[in-house]
Structure formats: structure tokens, C-alpha cells
Design a protein that fits this description.
By secondary structure, the chain is of the alpha/beta class. It is 48% helix and 15% strand. α7 links the parallel β8 and β9. α8 crosses α13 and α12 packs antiparallel against α13.
């Protein structure tokens, strides 16, 4: 069994780490707010107060934090992975982050003797809990093959996408598609309500046809239940879309649909809803209090 360090115990990170422990791997887990690690011993993991403590003796380090700045701090900051992990360690960043940063960390890791993969995921909190995530990986193919058995503890779709940064570029494409699908089912619900339709019956009718999607099957029912708890935070989706806008601008690519959806979520954040889940987009259409 592998000795693993896990950094980041949020909505998705903690259950993902738990799957590794459930498969018999030795997991030390660190979170910036130590109190969020309460109860991890019962899940088979050892809580740590520092990154240095978590990575001591680790063969593999997994990172699942919030923003690119957090990723950079965890890897390259004082007391971070590059400073504390042993040469030869394989570090896997599963945060949705910047492709440029992923490439830079890969290069810095090479100088330090630390192997780095970028491996963002799709599937939300449900995928994290059910170990059914899609995982998109950039970096050295041999490193991907080495860590594949560990990734298989967390996901059912394991995809090697190419050189460092390719995992993040793939996740960017994923988020563009998610933005469109989320806006589509939200406006379908809004129209159905205005037209006097039973929204549940409407979703059942269109979900089995050409309009069917993961978002309709998994997220639209949460909207109807009034459940806006974050499987994926609005603030993190805005972060993702901003990264995509930067990358697309550098390449001269216009993404008007993404720009529109981003502006809708920014308005929700302005209303103080940034800590709700992405399914709360329906609240954009409600009168502002």
C-alpha cells in the first residue's frame, strides 16, 4: 500500500482522500483550517497541522484546493511541497487551475526532482462521494501510468491528455460545456414555470431526448427541491471561467456564450450568493431583494 499525503479537505477533497484510505492506503491529510479535519481519524486518515508533516515519507502527494494562488502556495511557498517532499515524489494537482501555472509547476518540479501532474476532475460532489469522477491528466505519460491505480480509487474515467497543462486545458473545455448546459436547463425551467408547465414533468419529457444532459439529470432536480448547497461553489465556477477567458484571449478565441454565463454568475456573487452551488443560477431570474 502507498504512503500518501493529501492537501485540501473541502467538499470534494475530503471524500476523494477517503476513498484512498478505504482502499488500504496510508493517508496523511492537511488542510489550511485544521478544524475542518475533525473526524478524519474515523475515516482512516491521519490529520496533519503542516504540509511538511503530511508529506514526510510520502510517495505521492495529492492537492485539491480552491484557487490557482492556493496551488502555487502549496507547491512553491515556504514549507510547501517543493521544499519538504523528497526527490522522486509524484505530486498530483487535482484543483481546477491555470494551464500556464500547471506548466510552470511541472518545470519547477523537474528542477527540484519532484514529478508533477495536473489532474483536474469533473463530476461534482456526487462524483467525489461515489468515486465516479472523470479525471483529466497532463504531464509525463509514465507518471500517469504509475498513479493510475490511485486515480482509479476516485474516478471511473481516467484520461491522459498530453503534456503538462493539458489536463487543465481539457477541464477548461469541460467548464465551457458545463456553462452552456447549466444556463440551458435553468432557462428551460424558467420558461416552463412561466408557461404554466409542471417543471418535473417537463424535465422528464426533455431529459430522455436530444436535450438530455448530466446537468439536467443531476442538478436540475436540486433546483426544484430548493437545494442550493454547493456541490460546486459559484465563486469557484467564476474562477474557472475567468481562467478560460484569459486563456482564450491569449489565443484570439471569442467565447460569447461563456462570457454571458460568467456575467450572470458575477451578478449572483454581487448579490452575496457566491457560496451557493452553481444550480443557484435560477436565482438570477428572481427579483432582487
Amino acid at each position: 500500500m502507498a504512503q500518501i499525503a493529501w492537501i485540501g479537505a473541502g467538499v470534494m477533497g475530503r471524500p476523494m482522500a477517503g476513498h484512498l484510505a478505504a482502499h488500504g492506503h496510508r493517508v496523511r491529510i492537511y488542510n489550511h483550517h485544521f478544524e475542518k479535519l475533525a473526524g478524519v481519524e474515523q475515516e482512516g486518515m491521519e490529520p496533519c497541522r503542516t504540509i511538511a508533516q503530511a508529506v514526510e515519507g510520502a510517495e505521492y502527494v495529492f492537492v485539491m484546493v480552491g484557487y490557482p494562488r492556493d496551488v502555487e502556495e502549496v507547491f512553491a511557498g515556504p514549507g510547501g511541497i517543493f521544499e519538504c517532499a523528497a526527490p522522486g515524489t509524484l505530486a498530483v494537482d487535482m484543483t481546477t487551475s491555470s494551464p500556464e501555472l500547471a506548466r510552470r509547476l511541472w518545470e519547477q518540479g523537474k528542477e527540484k526532482g519532484i514529478r508533477v501532474l495536473d489532474a483536474p476532475v469533473s463530476g461534482g460532489d456526487r462524483g467525489a462521494r461515489n468515486a465516479s469522477l472523470s479525471i483529466m491528466v497532463g504531464g509525463e505519460k509514465a507518471d500517469f501510468e504509475e498513479v493510475r491505480p490511485l486515480l482509479a480509487c476516485m474516478g471511473t474515467g481516467l484520461h491522459y491528455m498530453g503534456q503538462a497543462g493539458s489536463g487543465q486545458h481539457t477541464k477548461a473545455a469541460n467548464q465551457i460545456a458545463v456553462a452552456g448546459a447549466t444556463a440551458a436547463y435553468t432557462e428551460a425551467l424558467r420558461y416552463a414555470q412561466a408557461a404554466g408547465l409542471d417543471p418535473r414533468a417537463m424535465l422528464e419529457a426533455i431529459g430522455g431526448g436530444a436535450a438530455g444532459s448530466w446537468q439536467i439529470a443531476n442538478m436540475a432536480p436540486r433546483v426544484l427541491a430548493g437545494d442550493f448547497a454547493p456541490g460546486f461553489f459559484i465563486k469557484h465556477f467564476i474562477k474557472d471561467m475567468k481562467i478560460i477567458q484569459d486563456e482564450s484571449t491569449q489565443r484570439g478565441v471569442e467565447l460569447p456564450m461563456l462570457d454571458t454565463v460568467c456575467s450572470l454568475y458575477e451578478e449572483l456573487a454581487r448579490r452575496g450568493l457566491e457560496n451557493e452551488g452553481t444550480q443557484a443560477l435560477i436565482r438570477y431570474y428572481e427579483p432582487e431583494a
